[in-house]
Amino acid sequence: MRLAILVLTGALALSAQQAPLPWKGAPALPWQMEAPEPAPTPCDATPTQSYFALEVRLVKDGKVTITDDKGLIRMKLGLPGRPVKAWRDWGTPIPDLLEPLHFATRSPLQRGIGGMPVGAPDFRPALEGLLWILDDDDSVLTVIHPATSQVVYLPLPGGQEFTLLFYPDRLEVRETAGDPQPRASWSLHWLVLLPRFIQLGKDSTAGKPKGTALLPFPKD
Questions:
Q1: Phi/psi at 16 (nearest 5 deg)?
Q2: Is 5 strand, coil or helix?
Q3: How far apart are CA 90 and CA 171, in angstroms?
Q4: For 82-104, how does the pLDDT look when each residue is reduced to its tens digit (9 = 90+)?
Q5: Number of domains the chain contains
Q6: Which residues face 77 on adjacent strands?
Q7: What is the percent of the chain with per-residue pLDDT over 70, rounded to a whole number?
Q8: 191 pairs with which residues across the strands?
Q9: Does some domain include residue 17?
């Protein structure tokens, strides 16, 4: 019996080691190197939802947990590294990563392409309800949509110690590496990310059994 347990444990460990990390398969993005520009003006949008029923918690080791107002766990995931910077919605910095964050259960992305101002001069209002996380791995930007329990990973250009800037027409990442002046800057038009935004807007729990206090992760 002990031998069988040891064999099974070893097989499970080997399987876990062979399982690909979700951010490793993310396709590369066409980042364009840019000369650094003045910081963008803040987005003047206001949240469309007044009831923030979802709580997101980050911990120092890189784990993220999302729970609803009943205390049920909707999502757990690990980041590629330890979180160092985060923004919400259309670029609002999060000063304390260890404080709980609250999000609504509805957002514009859930309306699909119809909820995105594709032809508008400022795309940022469509980003309501998103959480953007940079970690010390410096390889990908993790974007979480708590309302749908979806996550996408955006591979970053080569560099280290990035910061994000949210312009009306594009996302910009700047490599600082501790210097007061940015070493390099890359940008990506919001429209390039439309397929990722559509994925984030799809409800990952649709058609699945709901959890309970005793069984937060129900079996199919």
A1: -65, -35
A2: helix
A3: 10
A4: 999 999 999 999 999 999 999 99
A5: 1
A6: 64
A7: 82
A8: none
A9: no
Specify if 66 maps to a domain.
no
What residues make up the domain containing 190? Answer: 27-36+83-95+109-201
Contact 205, 46 (CB under 8 A): no
Q: Position 204: which residue type?
A: S
**Average confidence score pLDDT of the chain:** 86
Q: Which residues pair with 173 in a beta bridge?
A: 164, 186
Residue labelled with tokens 């953007």: 132
Q: Does a structural domain hold residue 55?
A: no
Is 5 contained in some domain? Answer: no
Looking at the DSSP assignment, which residues form a beta bridge with residue 185? 174
Token digits of residue 146: 């708590």
Task: Please count the residues of the chain.
Answer: 220
pTM of structure: 0.85
> Under a CB-based contact definition with an 8 Å cutoff, are residues 95 and 101 in contact?
no
**Are 115 and 108 a contacting pair, CB within 8 Å?**
yes
Distance of CA 173 to the CA centre of its chain: 15
Residue for token pair 């404080």: 99
* Residue whose C-alpha is closest to residue 109's, from 195, 23, 207: 195
